[in-house]
């Protein structure tokens, strides 16, 4: 494993039998898995380059069981890694050798659908697409739509603040969650928000969303549901260069047009997706934009004409508008299947996630091309172009000596470039273990310490998902320590409590 994880506690490993027995008393029946061959399916998440067996796997099916497991682990200083469907691409659900893997997949019920208040209350194991399936009969849907939406769970979406192709207009998970129930590491059940639009005080829902399992374990989520638009049409626009496609994206947004979705793919990704799905993508272009406009029919027709004019002004060589919902779905099917499609042309690939200002896209694409030559590895690019969220897919063969390491270094250089041009390390996949050691590229030591102070407020013992996000973890006592210099504390006139 290239990424170093905390050294396992030998004291915990020596107590494994007793720990398993105690957990079986809390979650009886088949809720505790401790056989090595049965735990093997949990040894990694979507970032399969990194694997590690957990101490034990626990699959509770009630909130009371979750609370009891966490309280037991807190009392006995046992680390806990929460896990949803395991689709995380940053190693966020990577198990710990001396930790309990707490799997929420049995929490898979839609508790309530409230059309009057435009929301649904669901358990965290419900899949992203499952929410839309539950409400589409009444003409509603759940807007955030990651490519893994058929499998990823809403609890995991909350943990990573997941996005998707339609988040440009309708927002990320954070913009579509109204309330959550979660359990602290001490076993206390807490509720934040509800069906109402906003809550007073600190935005604790915003804090929990994207916290990557470091602050608590989500056991219920209230999400916003939207009525399906009257009309939705998509247009495929091909360009002779990726730079022209990037300029077109910037021009569309500058015009004040906010599409429902705006995605970009380069030539390798286009060909892989077309070979896999047969969506009708043009093969003679270097870059392809998929732009979807939605709303009243007259508005969509007007905006389509505007987008086509902008595309032509930026050198588009092909422009094809969907003529039916089936054709529009086919356009998106290719994009949604881009990741598995690339898996057909390479033994392995490393899916990256960084975000940049849209205007920097040509510079970053040129930089990635140079890096591809430097590391001797191909790269296919898929972007949430409207909000600058990049997903480069670095192609490699793990069976060839050194290729995984080169892929990792290639990915690190891409993320450093994202930060250098004014972007950030992640748009929706999270930090996990993948980007953990790159955090100092974006944050200074004081920034990281302040983030860890938030962690300490929720989890003073650092038992929830340790080894993730922070490159160097400080004990809470160290972070709270007062610095005294030559007998004087900083700001001596301030009252101390």
Automatic annotation (TrEMBL):
<dbReference type="InterPro" id="IPR051914">
    <property type="entry name" value="FAD-linked_OxidoTrans_Type4"/>
</dbReference>
<dbReference type="InterPro" id="IPR016169">
    <property type="entry name" value="FAD-bd_PCMH_sub2"/>
</dbReference>
<dbReference type="GO" id="GO:0071949">
    <property type="term" value="F:FAD binding"/>
</dbReference>
<dbReference type="Pfam" id="PF01565">
    <property type="entry name" value="FAD_binding_4"/>
</dbReference>
<keyword id="KW-0560">Oxidoreductase</keyword>
<dbReference type="InterPro" id="IPR016166">
    <property type="entry name" value="FAD-bd_PCMH"/>
</dbReference>
<dbReference type="InterPro" id="IPR016171">
    <property type="entry name" value="Vanillyl_alc_oxidase_C-sub2"/>
</dbReference>
<keyword id="KW-0274">FAD</keyword>
<dbReference type="InterPro" id="IPR004113">
    <property type="entry name" value="FAD-bd_oxidored_4_C"/>
</dbReference>
<feature type="domain" description="FAD-binding PCMH-type">
    <location>
        <begin position="50"/>
        <end position="228"/>
    </location>
</feature>
<dbReference type="GO" id="GO:0003973">
    <property type="term" value="F:(S)-2-hydroxy-acid oxidase activity"/>
</dbReference>
<dbReference type="Pfam" id="PF02913">
    <property type="entry name" value="FAD-oxidase_C"/>
</dbReference>
<dbReference type="InterPro" id="IPR006094">
    <property type="entry name" value="Oxid_FAD_bind_N"/>
</dbReference>
<dbReference type="InterPro" id="IPR036318">
    <property type="entry name" value="FAD-bd_PCMH-like_sf"/>
</dbReference>
<keyword id="KW-0285">Flavoprotein</keyword>
<dbReference type="InterPro" id="IPR016164">
    <property type="entry name" value="FAD-linked_Oxase-like_C"/>
</dbReference>
<protein>
    <submittedName>
        <fullName>Glycolate oxidase</fullName>
        <ecNumber>1.1.3.15</ecNumber>
    </submittedName>
</protein>
């Amino acid at each position: 494993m290239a990424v170093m994880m905390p050294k396992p506690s030998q004291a915990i490993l020596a107590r494994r039998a007793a720990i398993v027995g105690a957990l079986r008393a809390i979650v009886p029946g088949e809720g505790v898995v401790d056989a090595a061959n049965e735990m093997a399916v949990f040894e990694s998440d979507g970032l399969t380059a990194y694997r590690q067996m957990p101490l034990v796997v626990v699959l509770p099916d009630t909130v009371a069981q979750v609370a009891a497991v966490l309280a037991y682990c807190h009392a006995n200083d046992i680390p806990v890694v929460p896990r949803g469907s395991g689709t995380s691409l940053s190693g966020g659900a990577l198990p710990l050798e001396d930790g309990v893997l707490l799997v929420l997949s049995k929490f898979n019920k839609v508790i309530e659908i409230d059309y009057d208040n435009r929301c649904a209350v669901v358990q965290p194991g419900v899949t992203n697409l499952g929410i839309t399936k539950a409400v589409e009969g009444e003409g509603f849907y759940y807007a955030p739509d990651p490519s893994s939406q058929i499998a990823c769970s809403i609890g995991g979406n909350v943990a990573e603040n997941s996005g998707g192709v339609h988040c440009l207009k309708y927002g990320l998970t954070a913009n579509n969650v109204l309330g959550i129930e979660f359990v602290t590491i001490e076993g206390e059940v807490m509720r934040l928000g509800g069906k109402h639009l906003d809550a007073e005080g600190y935005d604790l829902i915003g804090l929990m969303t994207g916290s990557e399992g470091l602050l608590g374990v989500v056991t219920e989520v209230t999400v916003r549901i939207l009525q399906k638009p009257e009309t939705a049409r998509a247009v495929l626009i091909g360009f002779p260069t990726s730079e022209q496609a990037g300029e077109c994206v910037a021009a569309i947004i500058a015009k004040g047009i906010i599409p429902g979705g705006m995605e970009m793919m380069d030539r390798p990704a286009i060909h892989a997706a077309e070979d896999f799905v047969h969506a009708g993508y043009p093969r003679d272009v270097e870059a392809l934009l998929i732009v979807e406009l939605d709303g009243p029919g007259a508005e969509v027709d007007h905006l389509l004409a505007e987008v086509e004019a902008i595309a032509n002004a930026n050198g588009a060589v092909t422009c094809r508008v969907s003529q039916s919902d089936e054709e529009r779905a086919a356009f998106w099917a290719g994009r949604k299947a881009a990741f598995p499609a690339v898996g057909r042309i390479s033994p392995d690939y490393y899916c990256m996630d960084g975000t940049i200002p849209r205007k920097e896209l040509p510079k970053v694409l040129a930089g990635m091309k140079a890096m591809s030559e430097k590391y001797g590895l191909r790269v296919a690019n898929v972007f949430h172009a409207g909000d600058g969220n990049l997903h480069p897919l670095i192609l490699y063969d793990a069976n060839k000596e050194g290729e995984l390491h080169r892929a990792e270094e290639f990915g690190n250089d891409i993320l450093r470039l994202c930060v250098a041009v004014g972007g950030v390390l992640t748009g929706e996949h999270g930090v996990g273990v993948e980007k953990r050691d790159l955090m100092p590229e974006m944050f200074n030591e004081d920034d990281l310490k302040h983030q860890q102070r938030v962690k300490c407020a929720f989890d003073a013992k650092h038992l929830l998902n340790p080894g993730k996000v922070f490159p160097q973890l400080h004990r809470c006592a160290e972070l709270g320590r007062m610095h005294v210099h030559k007998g004087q504390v900083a700001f001596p006139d301030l009252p101390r409590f």
